[in-house]
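Hello K.,

You asked for the raw outputs rather than the summary table, so here they are, unedited. I folded two proteins back to back in the same session to keep the settings identical. This is the first:
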Amino acid sequence: MVNGQGVCIDLGQCPQGANEIGQWLWNRPLDSPPRASLILAHGAGAPMDSAFMASMAERLAARGIAVVRFEFPYMAARRQGAGRRPPDPQVRLLDCWRETYGLLRARISGPLAIGGKSMGGRMASLLADELEADALVCLGYPFHPAGKMDRPRTAHLAEIATPTLIVQGERDAMGNRATVMGYPLSAAIRLHWLAAADHDLKPLKASGMTHERHLDAAADAVAGFLQLPGRDC
């Protein structure tokens, strides 16, 4: 189907075992082939069709990037009546990422990036080099648990070789600008800061910014990063 923004959306059926919801959610550019594709994973508490995920996928498709979303098993189980449950253990999340990437890599031609919102992006970052993804995109990276700055989740980010873009709010409770600038991060990582924004990229009202403008800015940054001339992705 085609949404009101001229972006093609469809539910592509997964081979058995791809994920437990049994489908991928695609947003594709309507008028031209995509310059790149991005597998986008959801965060810990919201599904692949949340307002944030849908907004970013639509914006990126309108900028020439094909986006495919999937769900981790615990989130897919909610749709089958299991109710709210915490995220799966990390090993299962990573296995789901590996399987999803392998299935999609076989179907997608051209540059293929991986990434996600918060936890989904962090899981992708742990596998980006192993999977040899063309690029990594993290939207609101959880550099540390909220209120626990003494528990950083950054060791692998000092060594990562995959070209990486992290779009981060300056006042993110899981990694504000002052805190993140103190971490030793790989030269492969670019940080794109959004003024006065929180973990969901929402700005303070007093800043004069709006969430819509920040989402547009995030999409511009991601699309530009994935379409740089002179590199594969």
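The second followed immediately with the same parameters:
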Amino acid sequence: MIAAGGGRFCGIRFITASHPDQAAWGSPVIRPAGLLLDPKVREGFARLAPLGLSIDAWIYHTQLGELAELARAFPETQIVLDHVGGPIGLGPYAGKRDEVFAEWSGHNRELANVHVKLGGLGMRMFGFSHHTGELPPSSEELATAWWPYIETCIAAFGPERTMFGSNFPVDKGSCGYAAVWNAFKRIAAGCSAAEKAALFSGTASKFYRLE
């Protein structure tokens, strides 16, 4: 793949999101618990940095401690955490948003050498109800609901380690594409021009070597 990519293949995405109750939020694949701690997974993970490859990690908030341990064990490996770290809002976490938020945000401080993607909040596993309305939500509604998570990530990681992403077509079940990006613009309205440039393009271009 590296040879065939001609310099365009720069990383992999490894989906390890796992929770005993994940069938409740429509996950089609049940993965074993503790996958990031598995010796065979770590054996493969150790090959990434020497090959010049990054990794996108899609996990739930209950696994952030495992990712923090992995990042400490492989500090030279470029890691980006997808979908703000997956704070679950369904199943046993329904109605416990404040409790989940506190646990999720606490783990963010442990991920000192990790980047994060700001997106994916349209997925139902986050526990929002935008998919139930008669009309799609406006960008104002999305910005209000998503602001605590995105603002917390920007504050914890800094614009140089955060990047906006739409997660389409998956998020289409809850909202429109234009509304997503307009919501991001509303959330970032108070940022400087340099910070906006990083959030909307610069961080992603640097991380994925898109120059």
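Strands lie at 11-15, 54-58, 79-81, 114-118, 162-164.

Happy to rerun anything if the numbers look odd on your end.

Regards,
P.
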